[in-house]
Design brief:
Layout (H helix, E strand, L loop, with lengths): L2 E7 L2 E9 L5 E7 L2 H16 L13 H11 L5 H19 L9 H13 L13 H20 L27 H10 L3 H10 L3 H5 L6 E2 L4 E4 L2 E5 L2 E5 L7 E4 L2 H11 L19 H5 L5 H9 L9 H11 L4 H8 L4 H7 L5 H30 L1
């Protein structure tokens, strides 16, 4: 049990609480002006110990800069495309702002102000701070919050001050651009890689999944593409791993693609890339997505299509599937989304017509039921 004792100071009598920590070492807290305040602290202390929620004040003196590198290092198990942005967020935003701060000194209002400053910029800063994108802000906040979560787990903090932050910026989703069947084929005909364009537009693969396909991943009899690799370009190098969410899937392709794919696999071994770049290695995404003079940009211009990226053809694939009668679960499986809810969230506009179809079907059903009920009466009247 905690004990309370008084002592004299120049400002008058004060009270000290002495107690045993969970590890049986002795602790104390002094400076209480009244015995009642000291007693309240002692009671709260004993309650926290009994609940296993006790936090040693001295443990909160560790700085974010001491805990951060350990947290970042544990994230190295992630894919390079996920790890590197976290590492950059720590290095560029979190460590410079919070590295020297003891975790126990951080307040929710300070974290909120930092998030706002990152979002809106700060011209008074030296050098001036430019506004950061919602993705950058949320990622930096997530790194700080994750580090402080660990501090809570290690009993360095009782609560995470970052978790009280509200109004995080939201990434503005660009309106989807959907191409028609005619325009997709015009782009394919004008491109150096027609089969790749059509696979992206009709199968909904991500760019990295498509360029990582091997010849052996094509099942001509079942008309399936087996997707279990993903190629990501980071720092000028290609990193090949698993698809997003580490989930492999099998995606059907329409019959008209069969002939093009037969030509694509001809003369290649099962381990050869289905869509290699000019040097025989993986096709580079940066050269295709960002270069105004890339083969894809040239094909768009020749076909009179709007300026999109190869990844945007994934949206067109979703639109084609829905217009062909696919339900949300089928579209989810084709695209490799983690859930049908995610598919609905991303492509809610594509399913608006489904609502109209439901209303029309109800009208038809009710009309049929009413007519059916009226027929006996009509017969009697006849």
């Amino acid at each position: 049990m905690a004990s309370i004792e008084s002592y004299e100071t120049k400002a008058g009598r004060r009270y000290r609480v002495r107690f045993r920590k969970p590890d049986h070492s002795e602790g104390s807290k002094r400076g209480f002006k009244t015995r009642r305040d000291a007693q309240a602290y002692a009671s709260a202390l004993e309650t926290s110990k009994n609940r296993g929620e006790y936090v040693d004040a001295s443990a909160g003196r560790v700085t974010v800069g001491e805990l951060g590198p350990e947290w970042v290092e544990r994230k190295r198990v992630l894919k390079p495309s996920s790890f590197r942005p976290l590492e950059a967020a720590w290095r560029n935003h979190v460590e410079p702002e919070w590295g020297r701060r003891p975790v126990a000194s951080i307040r929710t209002t300070e974290v909120q102000a930092w998030v706002t400053r990152l979002s809106t910029g700060d011209e008074r800063a030296v050098p001036p701070l430019r506004p950061k994108s919602a993705t950058t802000v949320v990622r930096a906040y997530g790194v700080l919050a994750g580090i402080l979560d660990d501090a809570v787990k290690d009993r360095r903090l009782s609560v995470n001050p970052a978790r009280g932050v509200s109004d995080l910026p939201r990434k503005r989703r660009k309106p989807h651009v959907y191409l028609s069947h005619e325009l997709v084929h015009a782009v394919a005909d004008a491109s150096k890689h027609p089969a790749l364009v059509l696979v992206l537009a009709y199968c909904g693969l991500r760019w990295g999944e498509a360029v990582a396909l091997r010849v052996g991943d094509v099942d001509m009899l079942a008309r399936r593409l087996h997707v279990h690799r993903n190629a990501v370009e980071l720092g000028g190098r290609i990193h090949e791993g698993t698809p997003k969410g580490h989930k492999a899937r099998s995606v059907p392709f329409p019959r008209f693609l069969g002939e093009l794919l037969r030509d694509q696999v001809a003369g290649k071994g099962p381990d050869d890339l289905l869509f290699p770049g000019p040097d025989g290695a993986h096709m580079r995404s940066a050269r295709v997505h960002k270069d105004n003079h890339s083969w894809f940009a040239a094909a768009l211009e020749a076909a009179g299509a709007p300026r999109i990226t190869p990844h945007d053809l994934r949206h067109t694939a979703a639109a084609f599937a829905v217009s062909a009668g696919a339900n949300v679960k089928a579209v989810q499986r084709m695209l490799g989304h983690s859930s049908a809810a995610m598919t609905l969230d991303v492509y809610a506009d594509l399913f608006d017509e489904d609502l109209n179809a439901v209303a029309d079907a109800l009208d038809h059903a009710v009309s049929g039921a009413v007519v059916s009920r009226m027929r006996p009466r009509d017969a009697r009247q006849a």
